[in-house]
Amino acid sequence: MDKQHTVMTWWKKAIGYIIYPSAFKDSNGDGIGDLQGIISKLDYLKDLGVDLLWICPFFKSPMDDNGYDVSDYQKVDPRFGDNDDFDLLIKEAHVRGIRIIIDFVLNHTSDEHPWFIEAKNNPNSPKREYYLMLPPKYVDGNMMPPNNWKGFFSTSTWSYDEQSNLYYMHIFSKKMPDVNWSNPDLRNEYYALARYYLDKGVDGFRLDALAHLARDLSFSDSRVALDENGLAFDMNRYSNRPELFDYMREFKDRVFAHYDCVTIGEVGGGISPEQSLKLSGYENGSISMVFNFDTAWENGAYDSVTKKDEELVTNVVKLKTNFDRWYQACDGKAWMPLYWDNHDHPRVLSQYGSVKYRKESAKMLITTLLFMYGTPFIYYGDEIGMSNVDYTDIDDFNDVSARNYLAENKDKYDLATLLRFLRRTSRLNARTPMQWSNEKYAGFSTVTPSQKVNGNYLEVNVEDQQKDEDSILNYYKKAIALRKQEDIAKSVIFGKFSFVDIANNDVICYVHEGSRPLLLIANFRDHETRFPIKFKIKRTLLHNYGEELFEKGVVALRPFECYLFEVDC
Ligand code: NOJ
């Protein structure tokens, strides 16, 4: 065990909250959420008990990927406000004891970023080396991309630029050229930007698409199976490659180590927990934690286009074993973030919970998350039980990944099938306006929001739930306050964690030992089930139903019922 494990840092104690700025609160009546909107809701967030905000990108951008395509890292995009709003947001959050991490997009820029424009225009500019630009390949006289790699948004990783007569690499949209981290000048640019933000007062970063910064610079064709367009989706060519760890170590030495900041890398791309320690391990690591994707999509929704709704069932055992795998690798060696959903996933309530049992399942899900090993991150709107969209028009799925998916699949499936698929998987499910009240546009804006409000806002909204003692929102507040109690936090952060009956198909049960040993029992099904309790219960700390039903050491669990007990270990 590393001695850093025993240190209680502020970010281990923190309760995170993720804000998708365009959907949180519109302050100026243009239908788009903005920084002043966030400022106006800081008291709400403080009251909820969260104290660490991760705010998705709000910098200047042509918005091909809603701000993940940055054209000026040092300027707030006018639709979100201006740099003074950014400074004010930091100040007002800090006054309330809330810290802020921003989303730092390091893997690519917008194609409208001045670096890329110069790289295209000027063959002699050093900026050309900031990107991955390669000459075309000619096969039988036909011009082809340099290789057969496929990216994340259903297209080749290469687009042709006429001006330079070169192809440039992009693992996301073609308006998001990948930057070349093997170039030291490029790396210096990002280090300077990181210092700029930290000097401004931000408390750290969520490092976007971190896993992909190093690529296979041989650029040879992949040999994995090709799709019908002759493309190979071979993430290994641009994920978690050895140089990534060197780049991040340099980043730490040059920047992170000099600030009291938290850094959380997004490491999809199939990283193993053991490999992740090279990034987030207390010993020799370079960042504070990594977000993995291994507890998302465990209801089979991903790739479920031909499946009926009834076929999607949460794989509770898989959820537990995946979490356990990460815990076993990280225990005593690294800290972890915890989340159920974010702006890239459908709403957790629609995935692992149930719209029919909205209240019960939303309460159960937050209880399960809060007391595991890690810093919990709540996605905006989950605290009131927001769920997937009810859109019936395919055009409402106006997102680059959905559009590209539709273009690729429109001839393979009928419209109803595609619509059903997007309603269960699209990122837009989690990007609808926050439901503040039952007023028009859910109190998010005074005009038609740029993203359509979920029709359930009349029943699911903050204002109504504030008045209802038994609401999801009030349960969240209670659960968060409990998680923040010093002795409970100590058990969660330092106590030994273990699942009980990990093979049980329906129930998640875990114990967190420590000064106040905790036992969580949560039914993940919409039917009743029974679970034996082998611990001596001292008291119930949280429960999402009225009456407690026990019989001879067995608890009878109703749909999505959960208990958090204090026990004797
Ligand atoms: C991961 C972000 O979370 C996602 O929203 C974005 O599309 C890609 N990275 C590209 O930046």
TrEMBL record:
Q: Which UniProt keywords apply?
A: Glycosidase, Hydrolase
Family per similarity comment = Belongs to the glycosyl hydrolase 13 family.
* Designated name of the protein: Alpha-glucosidase
Which BP terms in the Gene Ontology apply to this protein? Answer: oligosaccharide catabolic process
- Give one GO term, molecular function aspect: alpha-amylase activity
Limits of the Glycosyl hydrolase family 13 catalytic domain: 18-431
Q: Which InterPro entries match?
A: GH, GH13_cat_dom, Glyco_hydro_b, O16G_dom_2
Where along the sequence do coiled-coil regions lie?
none
